[in-house]
Amino acid sequence: xxxxxxxxxxxxxxxxxxxxxxxxxxxxxxxxxxxxxxxxxxxxxxxxxxxxxxxxxxxxxxxxxxxxxxxxxxxxxxxxxxxxxxxxxxxxxxxxxxxxxxxxxxxxxxxxxxxxxxxxxxxxxxxxxxxxxxxxxxxxxxxxxxxxxxxxxxxxxxxxxxxxxxxxxxxxxxxxxxxxxxxxxxxxxxxxxxxxxxxxxxxxxxxxxxxxxxxxxxxxxxxxxxxxxxxxxxxxxxxxxxxxxxxxxxxxxxxxxxxxxxxxxxxxxxxxxxxxxxxxxxxxxxxxxxxxxxxxxxxxxx
Length: 302
Description:
Shape: globular
Distance between the termini: 44 Å
Low-confidence stretches: 1-10, 285-290
Oligomer: single chain
Radius of gyration: 19 Å
């Protein structure tokens, strides 16, 4: 059964083991994530520049640069691919990550752009996953609330909620190469997942998170749940049906940090589909020279 206890390993029983994961060197700025069990301690990154062309928000229409940093759920026992692609898992279609967006023409990017950034990302993701007719459209609710101001009373941090009608990223054309193994769903599994959903089935994804400025960079941390009907006409709502899953993502969101090494904005090549690096953890600081260790330690403890 979808909601059986074995589908929520460890999460329902206790607060899972966690570690702080980051990259010692890499694109800049970059995140440090609290990664709990159920999530792979590996950070995936891609350039958003190809997807964020002529985005309209706050009365402006322009091109944006940015990086997307993602965590994916670990595979279920016996599987090689992430539980992100398992329709029987609480982690089905779950993302946890953030966008880092540099200023445009010296001006900070406005937080109101949050919903359309996610929408463009959804469409790009579906194209990567082989959807022949990628579909994503923002729907209500769309909610942005200032939760912190600076000394001048200007907005400094916001919480947001936005929902999308879109296709699931699991389907008959799932790519078999060109992506990290954890994102490749073998054709041999089609008979399994088709017991539960259709190819590129319609779902509703509600994304939540927090937006803030680090210097002049706009940071958008996001996580989500989805709603869909399975082949037995049961409605599944991962965010509300699995409170342990929800609480886990909230804990992880509360512990996101940003590392800025002062080298300016950098991102993967726009030609790269998606790249990943094994995340380092705090023990790795001991292997660094003292100056670099102190710099990153300060970022993690701000």
